[in-house]
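The instructor's notes for this session suggest beginning with a concrete chain rather than abstract definitions. Hand out the sequence below and ask the class to guess, before any prediction is shown, which regions might be ordered.
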Amino acid sequence: MRVLVASDDVGELDARTAADVIGRAFHDHGAQVAVVVLAPDAPRPTTQAELARLLAEGADVVDLTALDVPDFGAALLRTFDDDPAAALDALRRQLAGRTLTVALDGEVLDVPLTGLGGWAVNHSRESGGDIADGLAADTGARGWLQQLGLDDGPGSGAAGGLGAILLACGARYVDRITYAMEATGFEASASQADVVVTGCTDLDFHAKGGVLVERVVQVGEAALRPVIVVARRNFVSSRELRTAGIEAAYALTADIEPEPVTVEGFSELARRVARTWRF
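After discussion, reveal the predicted structure:
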């Protein structure tokens, strides 16, 4: 039996650890297992200073999904010059002649910086701000673009507004999961597997386990392969699972306030799933 495993984080376990635990359980029960991490094989900076260093070192691909940008990218530009416009020109010169590929979460690829649907207003609202705060944030974002001599547009609001700067430097955006699937040949691997296994923290009908689980399910359906989910908690009935394209789901607990997920506990669940799926 051939098993393809690609997991998201499961509670306190990161995606790689969770996938390895699942893969090991199936391997120990005689399956041929391929474990794939659906994340770009690229540096993932958490600060703008770290991003500036990576760009200076010649990085051509960066994953910005963990980057905290509270200032529309002003900190990145300050590593070049105190004047934002002059700093942007310096960054353009640094990136001239090469295409920077920026991996982002798919839902932010086309988000503008300004307007009611822009990042500035949405971030203000998500931070607990009222209408006045949102309008003030939008005004600040418009002023920032004007200071840089840039126009707003799809993707300018990505990475906390840093997107406007990166697009002005010729960067190319990619959905991080799509990029990882293409780089690993995930679709081809799914077509050769007998079963595809993924994992997530909580599986409910609204979120369906998150974006990664949804994408894995789509690939599994296209390849006509059953997809099963191993989760911390599952709130979806068997009938609803099949409607969502999931053959079966297995949960670690049903507790409202679950205990932290440990390798030991998750391994026990994974072994039970592997014993169930043997043919």
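Then share the key points. The two ends are 7 Å apart (CA to CA). The CA atoms of residues 118 and 187 lie 33 Å apart.
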